[in-house]
Design brief:
This protein is mainly α. Helices cover about 75% and strands about 5% of the residues. A two-stranded parallel ribbon has the order 1-2. The radius of gyration is 20 Å and the shape is rod-shaped.
């Protein structure tokens, strides 16, 4: 019997890779890509575990899943940082560079 690639193994790897640099898009884009990669990886792992002799490419699935977990952690950290900056400085301050510099200067002088 000829071996075939696990369905979506390359897609899982690509989404896992993309979840890391896109975590800087307010944390949302990276989080979405990472969650999709993990869901697909779990489905692919289940398919592989049923018939491991017919499928190849499990290493791409495992690597993609690890990268997606890293992407989730980084996205959540970035999201927490962004929310804390909004709560600390306010949305208007974050949009105005001069006002932001004044607030930072006030914090440094304390």
């Amino acid at each position: 019997m000829e071996q075939q690639k696990i369905p979506n193994s390359t897609l899982i790897l690509v989404l896992g890779i993309l979840s890391i640099p896109t975590c800087c898009c307010y944390g949302v884009v990276g989080l979405i890509l990472a969650i999709i990669a993990i869901v697909l990886a779990n489905k692919a792992s289940k398919v592989y575990s049923e018939n491991p002799e017919i499928y190849t490419g499990i290493q791409n699935v495992k690597t993609g899943k690890v990268l997606a977990i890293i992407g989730i952690v980084l996205s959540v950290l970035y999201l927490i940082m962004f929310i804390s900056m909004i709560s600390m400085f306010g949305w208007e301050t974050l949009q105005d560079q001069e006002l932001m510099q004044e607030k930072i200067q006030e914090l440094l002088e304390q």
